[in-house]
Amino acid sequence: MSEPSWRKPFGIFVILALIMIWAVLVLLASPLIERLPALLQAVVYTIAGIVWILPLKPLLSWMETGHWRKF
Asked: Any transmembrane segments, and where (predicted)?
């Protein structure tokens, strides 16, 4: 049996940190966003809700394989 990898617990910590940092950034931007028309606000918040996922693919790959990109 192989020894457990430290990458998965560390990766989970990084994911949670990324989510918290992104949430704080969106929160700080909310006074500017609330000045926009309601439809544009919905678009901005939808994009903000999706963008934080982008760095997860390489991070999840690293957690699983130890490499940032699969070859």
From this structure: 12-33, 39-60
In a domain, 18, yes or no: yes
Torsion from C-alpha of 60, 64, 66, 71, nearest 10 degrees:
-80
Residues 59 and 65: their CA atoms lie apart, in Å, by: 10
Q: How many domains does the chain have?
A: 1
Per-residue pLDDT, 64: 85
pTM above threshold 0.90: no
Q: Identify the domain containing residue 13 by its residue range.
A: 6-65
- Between CA 62 and CA 43 the distance in angstroms is 31
The arithmetic mean of pLDDT across residues 55-64, rounded, is: 87
